[in-house]
Amino acid sequence: MVMDSTKLPLPTWFLAIFLISQHKTGLSSLALMCQLGTSYRTAWLIHHQLMATMAEHDSQHPLRVKISPLVSFTREAITHWARHNLLPGCDVRSDGLHCFAGVIDAGCTHADIVVGERKPRELPQFIWIRTALATSKPWSMARTSPSSSPSTSPTT
Asked: Is the dihedral of CA 95, 86, 66, 128 positive or negative?
């Protein structure tokens, strides 16, 4: 853990996390020192520890996520979708539904993560799909919502 075995107060760590994560163009250790009221060495160590932790976390996300409707959840439908949307040899993860064997037919590798009695939200492997779905939900609802069409109400 980043804050493990440090003598720095938690509010200082939280302020540093906030400042680094909110600064769009990158925050220097010198600027962090001024904001936190610490020595340059302390600010530099905090900065580098937080940046390393964020880089480690970012390296675990998928490179691309594609969400599109399927005709049905059959092996044939998945094979057709995969041939049109995936490059041969790409790595596909699923929850173990049998139809996802269709990605193998399309030349991709497949690893299933069997959910069993657990809920997918309880499995860390599914965190990115939850994020992708949560992010895309407002967009997809706006595209299919009747309120997204031009207003036909009379003006007064």
From this structure: positive
> 110, 89 in Cβ contact below 8 A?
no
Q: Give ∠ CA 9-12-15 in degrees, rounded to 5.
A: 150
The residues spanned by each domain of the chain are: 10-58, 75-138
DSSP code at position 109: E
How does residue 25 score in pLDDT terms, banded at 50, 70 and 90? confident
Please give the Cα distance from 66 to 136 (Å, whole number): 10
The whole-angstrom separation of Cα 156 and Cα 100 is 55
What is the distance, to the nearest Å, from the Cα of residue 46 to the centroid of all Cα atoms in its chain?
25
CB contact at 8 A, 87 and 66: no
Give pTM, 2 decimals.
0.47
